[in-house]
UniProtKB/TrEMBL annotation:
Residues 42-356 form the Dihydroxy-acid/6-phosphogluconate dehydratase N-terminal domain. This is L-arabinonate dehydratase. It comes from Polaromonas hydrogenivorans. PROSITE patterns: ILVD_EDD_1. Signal peptide: none annotated.
Length: 579
């Protein structure tokens, strides 16, 4: 492998020339206390840190960034921490998804505009992984992803609690009067008890696992719990490796191929992944270039081929990410999946995936199941199409009651979240377990930002009857920790006039998951009349980022990226050369 020389580094353009501009760069870096020993002959490694006082899942990043810096210094690099947009899933309204592309733009421009040769990306909470990766892919410099790691299992009075999943479960119990306010508060205090991201197989664990499967993390990195000392050593190794990647010129353009993203789909299916994974992975693959692009049909095909073998909640019913790590983690799981993976796909180690898996083992075959004893033989995700969703929608069959996989029922339609929320608590609501609840105008533009409203609450009347699941359809997303017969991501969305906008309460809808179809049982003539009478809802934004997002965000089936960011991948990062 030919090594880059110092003069070939991007940062040398800022620091090396004997001219007045470089005088300015050097003198102002010296103002910070650095000297030529810090930069001469050394790659500058940006450490993009999504820490903030309100970044709940990244509380350890203030310390961890020092661990990464240590690694960069050990390897002869110049570490610089740059703060990036902190997106705390549980606190940002209406949804962090609205800001995923903002983080991506933040990252791309931070890397492009500064004297940066390579990067370590520090993220983990749901949208931080795709946001960081999307931006870094477009910036094009060598980078490595440092996952935050899952938090420890939740615990209340000796009972294990899982992020999100137990929130919904205990909330339903409280609504049904089965637990009291004091018991509810005890759950509140025990469900998130250490640093790290959600420890169910929700969006965070899915996305960090996907980052590893693409080849963007050190082997095994995504499974290490945030508070494990192995996590500190992994962070330091990220710093060291980022320096080597710069000298090796291991850019994403040289590293990634369609095989990298196909591996990610395979792993996602085996994990019983969050439905959010589809949107983010599609977006990431499209940023990586046309030759890497994957789509909904690739997920559906993989779902039929790859069994769910990670017995982790919410697809599983007992174990959490801490158990997954002790059972062998992502490396162990990928060793089981070997025959389904493209082992020659290159990774940040500079080696193909297959070499990274040498020696990987599973230590608990109930947590990471063998292929011939999966928790679901197929069906982590299914893509449905029909007159209600011409561009597709998704369901997670592994997390829903089997009777809803083939079902016809009357629609119960809500145009917005507040009216739906008020109705479900009305004990006189005209609803049965056969109804199909619909929430619309909750998509990429309508939400705005496609909030995680797709697991519509079961109406109180039915909860009290013991109903635990029913069919629900929306153009929203749902949390990766959610479960139930929820059909999501309907495209095109209702807000822009997709067929979902034309449904009326009482219309019959047929869902057939084995046949991958979803059909509104209304004649084409009647639908044409309804379309002629349809008027677009009022605009959500008149100014600002929301205004820009509404004009440029694409639909769920193509990843919700901004149209103007989907430029050809691999364009040289050298735009600043002209300044
Ligand atoms: Fe951050 Fe769940 S709230 S990962």
């Amino acid at each position: 492998m030919t090594k880059k020389t110092y003069q070939e580094l991007r940062s040398a353009r800022w620091f090396a020339p004997d001219d007045v501009r470089s005088f300015g760069h050097r003198s102002r870096v010296m103002q910070l206390g650095y000297g030529p020993q810090d930069w001469e002959g050394k790659p500058v490694i940006a450490i993009l840190n999504t820490w903030s006082d309100i970044g709940t899942c990244h509380g350890h990043f203030k310390q961890r960034v020092e661990d990464v810096k240590r690694g960069v210094l050990q390897a002869g690099g110049f570490p610089l921490e740059l703060p990036a947009l902190s997106l705390s899933e549980s606190l940002v309204k209406p949804t962090t998804m609205l800001y995923r592309n903002m983080l991506a733009m933040d990252v791309e421009e931070l890397l492009r505009s500064h004297p940066i040769d390579g990067a370590v990306l520090m993220g983990g909470c749901d949208k931080t992984t795709p946001g960081l990766v999307l931006g870094a892919l477009s910036a094009g410099v060598p980078f490595i992803y440092m996952p935050a790691g899952p938090m420890l299992r939740g615990n209340v009075k000796g009972k294990i609690l899982g992020s999100g999943s137990d929130t919904w479960k205990y909330w339903d119990e409280r609504r049904a009067g089965k637990i009291n306010a004091t018991q509810w508060l005890e759950v509140e205090g025990g469900i998130a008890r250490s640093h790290g991201h959600c420890m169910t197989m929700g969006t965070a664990s899915t996305m960090t696992g996907i980052a590893e499967a693409i080849g963007l993390t050190l082997p095994g990195a995504s499974s290490i719990p945030a508070v494990d000392s192995n996590h500190i050593r992994m962070a330091t190794e990220c710093g060291r490796r980022a320096v080597s990647m710069v000298w090796e010129d291991l850019t994403p353009a040289k590293m990634l191929s369609r095989a990298s993203f196909e591996n990610a789909i395979t792993v996602a299916m085996a994990m019983g992944c969050s439905t959010n994974a589809i949107i983010h992975l599609v977006a990431m693959s499209r940023r990586a270039g046309e030759h890497c692009a994957v789509g909904l049909d690739d997920f559906d095909a993989a779902s039929r081929r790859v069994p769910v073998i990670a017995n982790i909640r919410p697809s599983g019913d007992t174990y959490l990410m801490e158990d997954f790590y002790y059972a062998g983690g992502m490396l162990g799981m990928m060793s089981v999946l070997k025959d389904h993976l493209k082992l020659d796909a290159l990774t940040v180690t500079g080696k193909p995936l297959g070499e990274n898996l040498v020696g990987a083992e599973v230590y608990n075959h109930d947590v990471i199941r063998p292929l011939d004893n999966p928790i679901y033989a197929e069906g982590a995700l299914a893509v449905l199409r029909g007159n209600l969703a011409p561009d597709g929608c998704v369901i997670k069959p592994s997390a829903c009651a089997p009777q809803y996989l083939q079902h016809t029922g009357p629609a119960l339609v809500f145009d917005d979240y507040p009216s739906m929320k008020a109705a479900v608590d009305d004990e006189n609501l005209d609803v049965t377990a056969d109804h199909i609840m619909i929430l619309r105008n909750a998509g990429p533009q309508g939400g705005p930002g496609m909030p995680e409203w797709g697991m519509l609450p079961i109406p109180l009347k039915l909860v009290k009857q013991g109903v635990k699941d029913m069919l629900r359809i929306s153009d929203a997303r749902m949390s990766g920790t959610s479960y139930g017969a929820c059909i999501l991501h309907v495209a095109p969305e209702a807000y822009i006039g997709g067929p979902l906008a034309l449904v009326k309460t009482g219309d019959l809808i047929t869902v057939d998951v084995p046949a991958r179809s979803i059909h509104l049982e209304v004649s084409d003539d009647e639908l044409a009349l309804r379309r002629a009478a349809w008027t677009a809802p009022p605009k959500r934004f008149e100014r600002g980022y929301g205004w820009m997002s509404a004009r440029h965000i694409q639909q769920a089936d193509t990843g919700c990226d901004f149209d103007f960011l989907e430029t050809s991948f691999g364009a040289p990062i050298g735009e600043p050369d002209i300044y």
